[in-house]
Input
Amino acid sequence: FRGKISLHPQMGKFRASLYQKEGVVAEQVLENGDCVMDICLAEKDWQMLLKQSAIDGRKILFNDKL
Output
């Protein structure tokens, strides 16, 4: 998986898991506390983290065209 995601502050455990897998390329914290992260991670690791955290990957994809 290679892409940009947006995480709410309550998703800190998932964020920590991404760092633990060394999948974070860059991170920016927005004024509202959300984190926008560039991620580069093996697809199997990405899917495993999403499943373990019960997160729908489509809901955290960052769309900067909003």
Notes: Helices lie at 12-20, 43-53, 57-60. The mean pLDDT is 94. The CA atoms of residues 8 and 65 lie 18 Å apart. The chain is about 35% helix and 25% strand.
